[in-house]
Write a structure and sequence with these properties.
single chain, 6 helices, elongated
């Protein structure tokens, strides 16, 4: 939270309104992607072994680092403790591949979106 406060203070001291955008990834998709890459790189002969894939999925899910990357409520709380809620925008990365998703972000930031 200190970093957010510092960022806000520096920008606002220069009369810049800070409008954070938190781009999140679907937690399951993040874990599943990590598992697929791990199997592809380390165990390519196991990619069709459903039992092996399930074990790797559970192992990955239990990793502390994975928890930190997928527990967005902590990040949201930190953002909301520093910034005005109406200035924060939340979006899932999966939505960035559509015009509507890009429009939501650019509208929030007061920019034009062109694809």
């Amino acid at each position: 939270m200190n970093e957010f406060s510092t960022i806000k203070r520096i920008f606002e001291s220069n009369s810049i309104v800070v409008k954070p955008v938190l781009i999140m990834r679907d937690p399951f998709e993040r874990i599943w992607s990590e598992v697929r890459m791990n199997i592809k790189n380390k165990y390519p002969d196991q990619k069709n072994n459903e039992e092996f894939v399930c074990v790797k999925l559970l192992e990955t899910y239990r990793l502390k680092g994975v928890e930190e990357k997928t527990r967005y409520e902590r990040m949201i709380k930190n953002l909301e403790n520093v910034f005005d809620n109406q200035n924060i925008h939340y979006e899932f990365s999966e939505n960035l591949y559509s015009q509507q998703g890009l429009d939501r972000i650019t509208n929030h930031l007061g920019m034009l979106s062109v694809i």
